[in-house]
Write a structure and sequence with these properties.
- The complex is a heterodimer of chains A (465) and B (543).
- Chain A is built from 13 helices and 19 strands.
- In chain A, the strands form 4 sheets. Chain A has an 8-stranded mixed beta sheet, sandwiched between helices. In chain A, strands 1-7-4-5-6-3-2 form a 7-stranded antiparallel beta sheet, with no helix packed on it.
- In chain A, a hairpin with a 2-residue loop joins β2 and β3.
- In chain A, α4 packs across α5, α10 crosses α11 and α11 packs antiparallel against α12.
- The N and C termini of chain A lie far apart (74 Å).
- In chain A, 51% of the residues are buried.
- Chain B has 15 helices and 20 strands.
- In chain B, strands 2, 12, 13, 14, 15, 16, 17, 18, 19 and 20 form a 10-stranded mixed beta sheet that branches. In chain B, strands 6-5-3-8 form a 4-stranded antiparallel beta sheet, with no helix packed on it. A 4-stranded antiparallel beta sheet of chain B has the order 4-7-9-10, with no helix packed on it.
- At the A-B interface, α6, α7 and β19 of A face α1, α4 and α6 of B.
Chain lengths: 465, 543
């Protein structure tokens, strides 16, 4: 890398953009520090390295900055993040400044913020799970190590609450080393405060790193916060061998920032004004999940996004869905019924689930058990629609049973509240719902599985309906 | 000013860096050792890159596509004094797993053979020296954007057997044909592409992961390293993977499709049947758009370059069944199956439409079917195949002369089922006539046991045409028997629908060894259905 060079005076400033003439051997993406008398330092990076003019995008407020008298230092380095084990327990800003009043972390390495693509040949197909403590996820849409499984929310739904609950409850099975990296993007001051307090009280902070980008912070910092979080996660996973769960909320704020920055650069807009490269850009975040050969750790992602107006075909959820491996969908209807977390299991799907469940990981009958819960609940939901037309008495008996099942399923299985539920408890709660159904309603379970359960259940004093 | 498109990450590139022109369009090295390898969108072998830079791909790393140190056994097929022309088979190299790689005289070169070298060679050793002194090696280079020359295009008359009932029976594709397979996310495009790669009848598979998920490539690599369903060796021994995942550089994503097609044409020129899975062309088109917008080209629909349709057409035209250049005379084919990822699942978008202008078949994947867990989620109402008639002739002759009639009946039943279901959703199924209820029940069985197929069930992942026909034919004969029984006065309750369903399920899931018993069971069920009418008659006579 080239050494740092300092220049006095930018030719012009335009919002967050500074224009420099005369700069030599400028690198794309080079990290820049802008100093001016009586103003805090402003950090930025080179976004356009022309022969005559260099364009620097500031990451911080440029209001009041006098371009002509500013001292502009091109550091010679690309954007780096300080990473290390000592970041655990810390709350940082989107660019890594302390937010918890403690000194700046020292770290044990620096990693490029933008990362590099994992060589596909070095990836290990994901094959074990992470327990989130949420039944609707662990039981029916199991999160697998190395997977990226987004939560699709709608405005007004408690997505951030769910994110915080997962940050508190998640763990790796068999007590394997585990950490959470939480990137909050564009959240309000109130939420920031609430998160910090909550994680301190619950003790979750000890094994977590928080990157908190607040709504009032500069837009471009939103683009850096998840990358700083991922650089840290990669380091903890591949150098320290931890299983790292990265929770990112809210990707919608991230995409808005991406659009804003693209517009400032006068780029040709794509669908709904979002840049044409949004797919690639989102992929550069989501594809940083994975497991690599010869490393004990893994990076798993749980991004959370708000579907504008609840529209799943909006570019943000649409492009996300094409990159991620499934989705967990939150439902307004369940929220209205007072179910927390309001996960609608029907449109939800974890594509990698089969790789992380079964005899080697959870319980042998997991797949059949989940298929049965899903099928009966789907039938119950259909019956609920039918009931609106023909009335409950007009439904065939099987549909009536499924209808009662669906109510109970939403209330107890999905609606667990904010308490943690272990995987064993999740399986048991599911079984208790199935126990009440006659075997003719349980065609997804094969005879042995059902007989084994019935025996166990009768031994515990249950009776078939 | 010359504008360069860089195939790697440009962060950190400085003003004033030296630029060295190679004097060549993007070319790829073709030769032995390609099979079984994983390369990126510009032909770099990923295994070698991993040796050089570890888990992450760092910019500025290069490695030749074919390992220069690797040694191959060359067996000549020509002798001193022979006159050799473009495409002539000069000799062979035995690849891993017994695959015979033919060493061809490169296009555009010919001459008299002065010397032939047998045995142990590397890619830089001459195996044939011409009178002019020109050496010919086991490899050749080819610019990826130019189609490799052939003697002639041949009419497509044979099917590319997919082993998927809904495809082989309803929407077959010819060997050398092209298919567009659009579907929103979660409709099972990738699972279907992988099934087709695994079970489709081809000598060589080129799988292009263009802008898709890294974990999927890991899965393909892992799965394909296991046993080939059509032979005892790993499938990877006859596969080339082109992996340019969504987080790898965009420009190399655009070129990955051309690299894959060039490799496919190379094996076609040896006289092999090659299947190309492109997953997905939308990512290729987006790469075009991204590059176009950075060049500030005038955008066409939805920001795609106006050349999208013509480029898509050219790309699809590289598929086909061809008579190859050179001696001995031989035919080879490239069958191209392209996944398309329409935004929001809306097929009216430009990439899907551009593919439909040229593709010979449309396999439309439907989110509603996927949601009902009906897989493969190929929508039989909107899909089509222009090869259907020609292929039906082939199946009539090779499987059963009733094939095309059964296909027509099946389509008709599904059509009537769609209409009846609409009626039933208003008046309730109980209010329908008995024959209509039987039709609904039959169509449900067809959907579940004939059109539905599990990619993960070892006994059903590949359905040979005889099994496909047996299932469809039995379901329809059971329906006819039931209708006859109803006309004979039998009550609806007496039609053994559940028996037929069970028997269909048995045959579907039976291992090849048990299929005879399952077929017998199915015939019994049909006989029971037919006899329902007779017993109804008896009941009337003896109340």
């Amino acid at each position: 890398m080239t050494v740092a060079r300092t220049y006095r005076g930018a030719r012009a400033a335009e919002g967050p953009l500074l224009y420099l003439s005369r700069a030599q051997r400028v690198a794309l993406g080079e990290w820049v520090i802008v100093q001016s008398p009586g103003q805090p330092d402003v950090r930025g990076q080179v976004i356009d390295a022309g022969e005559g003019v260099t364009v620097v995008q500031a990451l911080e407020e440029t209001l009041g900055l006098p371009p002509a008298s500013a001292r502009i230092t091109l550091t010679g380095n690309l954007a780096q993040a300080v990473v290390g084990r000592d970041l655990l327990g810390r709350a940082l800003s989107g660019v890594g400044d302390p937010k918890d009043g403690l000194p700046r972390p020292v770290g044990d390495a620096q990693r490029p913020l933008w990362g590099a693509p994992i060589n596909p040949i070095r990836r290990v197909p994901p094959d074990d799970f992470i327990e989130t403590g949420i039944s609707a996820i662990d039981g029916l849409n199991t999160l697998v190590r190395g997977q990226k499984l987004p939560v699709f929310s709608s405005p007004g739904l408690p997505a951030l609450d769910l994110a915080a609950t997962i940050v508190e409850h998640a763990r790796a099975p068999r007590d394997e080393p585990f950490a959470v990296v939480f990137a909050a993007i564009g959240i309000t001051a109130r939420e920031t405060h609430a998160f910090l307090q909550r994680f301190q009280q619950s003790g979750a902070l000890e094994r977590s790193v928080l990157y908190l980008n607040q709504a009032e912070d500069p837009t471009i910092e939103r683009l850096l916060a998840p990358r700083a979080a991922l650089a840290c996660a990669e380091h903890l996973a591949y150098v320290h061998g931890l299983h790292v769960l990265v929770v990112m909320a809210d990707i919608t704020h991230y995409c808005e920032a991406l659009r804003e920055v693209a517009a400032a650069r006068e780029e040709v807009p794509g669908r709904r004004g979002y840049p044409g490269y949004m797919y690639t850009d989102l992929a550069s975040l989501f594809e940083r999940a994975g497991v690599v050969h010869g490393s004990a750790g893994s990076v798993t992602q749980l991004p959370i996004l708000t579907m504008p107006d609840g529209d799943i075909t909006h570019p943000i959820p649409d492009l996300t869905g094409y990159i991620t491996e499934g989705q967990v969908v939150l439902s307004r209807e369940l929220q209205r019924r007072g179910v927390f977390p309001p996960v609608d299991v029907l449109p939800s799907l974890s594509r990698l689930m089969n790789a992380g469940i079964g005899p080697a990981h959870t319980v042998p009958e997991h797949r059949k058990w989940a298929d049965q819960l899903y099928a009966t609940y789907a039938r119950g939901r259909e019956a609920r629609l039918m009931m609106a037309i023909v009335g409950e008495a007009g439904l065939p008996p099987g549909d009536r049973r499924a209808l009662a099942f669906a109510e109970e399923f939403e209330r107890t299985f999905v609606g667990q509240g904010s308490a943690r539920r272990s995987l064993a408890d999740t399986i048991e709660v599911g079984w208790r719902l199935l126990d009440r159904l006659p075997s003719e309603d349980l065609l997804k379970l094969n005879a042995e599985v059902l007989a084994a359960r019935r025996k166990q259940w009768r031994a515990a004093g249950g009776t078939a309906s | 000013v010359a504008t360069l498109q860089v195939f790697e990450e440009t962060a950190g590139v400085r003003v004033g860096e030296p630029v060295v022109p190679e004097g060549l369009a993007l070319t790829i090295e073709l030769g032995p050792g390609l099979l079984g390898s994983v390369i990126d969108g510009i032909g770099r072998p990923l295994a070698r890159l991993a040796d050089l830079t570890g888990h992450f791909i760092q910019p500025g790393t290069t490695a030749p596509t074919i390992d220069p140190a690797r040694r191959f056994q060359f067996t000549p097929n020509c002798a001193t004094g022979d006159r050799v022309e473009p495409g002539d088979v000069l000799g062979t190299v035995a690849e891993r797993g017994g695959f015979v790689l033919k060493v061809l005289m490169p296009p555009g070169r010919s001459g008299l053979v002065r010397a032939v070298h047998q045995g142990d060679v590397t890619v830089s050793d001459a195996v044939v020296v011409l009178e002019s002194g020109d050496p010919v090696t086991v490899t050749q280079k080819w610019p990826v954007r130019r189609p490799r020359p052939v003697a002639a295009r041949v009419e497509a008359t044979r099917p590319f057997l997919t082993g998927q009932r809904v495809l082989d029976l309803l929407f077959p594709v010819a060997e050398g044909g092209t298919v567009a397979m659009p579907g929103g996310f979660g409709t099972g495009k990738t699972v279907l592409e992988q099934s087709l790669a695994k079970y489709g009848e081809a000598d060589v598979v080129v799988y292009i992961g263009c802008g898709e998920r890294g974990n999927e490539m890991a899965e393909v690599l892992h799965d394909f390293s296991l046993t080939d369903p059509h032979g005892g060796r790993p499938l990877m021994d006859r596969t080339v993977l082109v992996a340019n995942t969504s987080n790898m550089p965009v420009a190399a994503r655009e070129s990955s499709v051309y690299v894959g097609l060039t490799i496919a044409e190379y094996f076609r020129d040896m006289g092999y049947r090659v299947a190309v899975m492109a997953d997905s062309l939308s990512r290729w088109a987006e790469a075009l758009r991204e590059v176009g917008s950075r060049l500030q080209e005038m955008p066409g629909e939805e920001g795609y370059p106006t050349s999208l349709a013509s480029r898509t057409a050219k790309l699809n035209e590289r598929a086909g069944r061809m008579r190859c250049l050179g001696r001995p005379e031989r035919e080879g084919s490239v069958t191209l199956i392209s996944a398309v990822s329409p935004p929001g699942g809306d097929f009216s978008e430009p990439v899907t439409q551009a593919c439909l202008y040229v593709a010979g078949a449309l396999w439309a994947l439907d989110p509603a079917l996927a949601h009902q867990r009906q897989f493969p989620a190929v929508d039989w109402e909107s899909s089509y195949s222009l090869y259907a008639d020609a292929m039906a002739c082939h199946f009539d002759a090779s499987v059963d002369h009733g094939w095309s009639a059964t296909r027509a009946r099946l389509l008709d039943l599904l059509q009537r089922d769609a209409e009846l279901r609409e009626v039933a959703s208003i008046v309730g199924p109980e209010a329908l006539e008995d024959r209509d209820r039987l039709l609904l029940a039959t169509a449900a069985a067809l959907r579940e046991f004939v059109l539905g197929q599990s990619a993960f069930d070892p006994n059903d992942a590949f359905s040979p045409p005889s099994k496909t026909f047996a299932l469809a034919d039995a379901a329809i004969r059971a329906f006819d028997a039931g209708i006859e029984a109803l006309s004979g006065g039998a009550p609806f309750m007496d039609i053994p629908i559940d028996d037929v369903r069970r028997a269909l399920a048995n045959l579907r899931d039976a291992p090849p060894a048990g299929s005879e018993a399952a077929r017998q069971h199915l015939e019994d069920a049909i006989r029971t259905a037919a006899s329902a009418s007779a017993s109804a008659g008896e009941k009337k006579a003896h109340p």
